[in-house]
Design brief:
Chain lengths: 318, 277
């Protein structure tokens, strides 16, 4: 064998080794999996398993006795039937729907008006816009407590102002009057949701190209027309996102209702969320509580899937 | 004609803007100002919008009983932030740059977790944690709060990792480093702002958590985060609203400090689709 051939073979072997080596370097399947493993294990144990367990519990006669004895009888769909047939279920459905719709619509209108207001730069506009987001970042328990005090019967500010204007009798008691308690919760929740609507709609407005407005102006569009025929259609995807996410986030609201009224007075502010919690933790009917929670889960999942499907083109979440 | 109110001069816009902001922030002002008043002042008719005098009596009264709860919240929130970062950072990197067959499915599931009602997890988590002996513990609350913080952190960090080309890591392979080495030494320092943002939001979630605290902490527990202690305070002293407002204000302090210190990270988090559940 000539030295030339030897060199050639050696070179080839090295190249092949090189290729092999590089290929191995490019993808270490095992090492790569270890990046995801902790997250997957954690999520399966503390998210996936509870979700699965929720389904299991909802099919069992799981009450306090079962919790103590550790034996719960399988009862099929009985919990679901019991939950749906309970008159509170219908009330909670109506409250949830009212709370959601009457929160989202004003939140959106106010958020939109504010986004348009802040669209143009003016002195302090940035600072003021940032301050508007503050309620978003305050713990919900804190906002809830403050609103509970504002609506207080003895000397809450809202009570005082409305009594002072002779609109309502003094010591009216929003939170203890059926109907008004739900209205109070909706008012508090609108306040909580304005920052989210403002932030998303504002960034949506910012992304509309100025040229569209110039073109509309050349065509003689007035202020309202340019809003109606330029802003609204171009903002449509963002509007859809805001409303759908608003729905998804409002239908599951728990903290603020539980802190301010706990579903009272007399279940008149009970929503699906608080009712599920009450079934589990006040009445210790864990099976029924889980069944009610799974009903909310299904509704949320349907809307969430609709949202993700609908927003697949406009949002690069994948 | 762009949206906006061209009719008004910039100065008029500023004045209107200030008035609107004052209205919006009024509940928070009311909390702060009532926490600095006596109970005679807050129950006076008519009540003063701007008090003639202020006092720190409420703070002195609640500080001693609330301090342990603030510390508890701090421990749980830092624990959640650390756990979320440790678990989420490598996962986010993997989901950004390694094309697994299941990458899309995982991202999809993570998005779904952000939309699933927390109340669905409350019942099963209580029952499971009861069996595992995790009720009334720091660890239990950290693990529960992370169910929201971990997927959120993965999603937010993934966006940061996507903005960094994978070729940077590949360049490090030439020096003989593996995926982990390249990740830690080359990529991680570049996404530090993302890590801070994710940690910050994980902290804020845990700090603001109410439902897991309410569920996983039973009445006799010594581990009581501040969110739960405010709730029991207004249940217990239904007329001491000045003190309640003082506790509420104290509960805002850590969040306020973080907001001031890390303002730009907050904006980054909010604009990347970060939403409060």
């Amino acid at each position: 064998m000539s030295t030339k051939t030897q060199a050639f073979i050696k070179e080839r072997a090295e190249t092949r080794k090189g290729v092999k080596r590089r290929r191995r370097l490019r993808r270490f399947p095992l090492a790569r999996v270890t990046f995801l493993l902790p997250a997957i294990i954690y999520m399966l144990l503390f998210y996936g398993y509870p979700l699965f367990y929720s389904i299991q519990v909802s099919l069992e006669k799981y009450d306090l006795q079962a919790e103590i004895s550790g034996v719960a009888a399988f009862v099929g769909l009985n919990n679901y039937i019991a939950v749906v047939q309970d008159p509170t279920f219908r009330d909670a459905a109506i409250h949830t729907l009212l709370f959601t719709v009457l929160s989202i619509v004003p939140q959106f209108i106010l958020g939109m008006a504010l986004a348009v207001f802040f669209y143009r730069y003016f002195p302090l506009s940035r600072l003021l816009r940032a301050l508007f987001l503050l309620p978003w970042l305050v713990p919900l328990i804190v906002s809830g407590t403050v609103w509970k005090w504002l609506f207080n019967e003895t000397n809450g500010l809202i009570d005082q102002i409305l009594a002072g204007l002779h609109l309502l009798p003094p010591h009216f008691g929003w939170l203890t009057t059926p109907g008004w308690a739900l209205a109070a919760l909706i008012i508090a929740n609108i306040w909580l949701g304005i920052p989210f609507n403002l932030a998303i709609l504002y960034s949506g407005l910012q992304s509309i190209d100025h040229e569209f407005y110039e073109a509309a102006a050349i065509d003689g569009a007035n202020r309202w027309q340019s809003f109606r025929y330029v802003t609204v259609p171009l903002l449509e995807p963002v509007i859809g996102i805001v409303l759908m996410l608003g729905f998804i986030y409002t239908i599951k609201v728990f903290d603020i209702i539980y802190v301010i009224t706990q579903g009272g007075p007399g279940n008149t502010t009970q929503t699906f969320s608080t009712w599920s919690y009450t079934l589990s933790f006040s009445e210790q009917l864990f099976g029924q509580g889980a069944a009610q929670a799974n009903i909310i889960l299904v509704i949320s999942l349907i809307v969430a899937l609709l949202y993700l499907w609908w927003s697949r083109r406009t949002t690069q979440w994948i | 004609m762009q949206p906006g109110l061209r009719r008004f001069s910039p100065v008029a816009m500023t004045v209107i803007g200030i008035i609107l902001t004052l209205i919006m922030l009024f509940p928070l002002y009311w909390m702060l100002i009532n926490s600095l008043e006596t109970s005679q002042q807050i129950f006076a008719i008519p009540v003063a919008i701007v008090p003639s005098q202020i006092t720190f009596a409420s703070y002195i009264e609640v500080f001693q009983t609330q301090l342990p709860h603030l510390v508890t919240s701090l421990v749980i929130s830092i624990g959640t932030a650390l756990l979320a970062i440790v678990i989420a950072t490598p996962a986010a990197y993997g989901l950004a740059h390694f094309r697994f067959r299941v990458t899309l499915l995982i991202v999809f599931c993570l998005l779904l977790t952000q939309m699933i009602p927390t109340v669905t997890l409350a019942t099963p988590m209580f029952l499971i944690f009861n069996k595992l002996g995790l009720l009334n513990s720091y660890l239990g609350l950290v693990l529960a709060d992370s169910t929201y913080a971990v997927p959120f952190a993965i999603l937010i960090l993934r966006a940061f990792f996507l903005s960094i080309p994978y070729e940077l890591a590949q360049a490090a392979f030439v020096d003989g480093t593996g995926e982990w080495g390249a990740f830690i030494r080359v990529i991680l320092p570049l996404v530090l702002p993302g890590v801070v943002t994710a940690a910050l939001f994980a902290f804020l979630f845990a700090w603001g958590d109410f439902i897991y605290a309410l569920t996983l902490i039973t009445t006799s527990s010594i581990v009581v985060p501040v969110s739960l202690s405010i709730y029991s305070y207004i249940g217990q002293y239904s007329n001491a609203w000045n003190n309640a407002m003082a506790v509420a204000t104290l509960a805002c302090i850590p969040a306020a400090i973080l907001l001031v210190l890390f303002q730009r990270y907050i904006t980054a988090g909010l604009t990347s689709g970060a939403l409060k559940g």
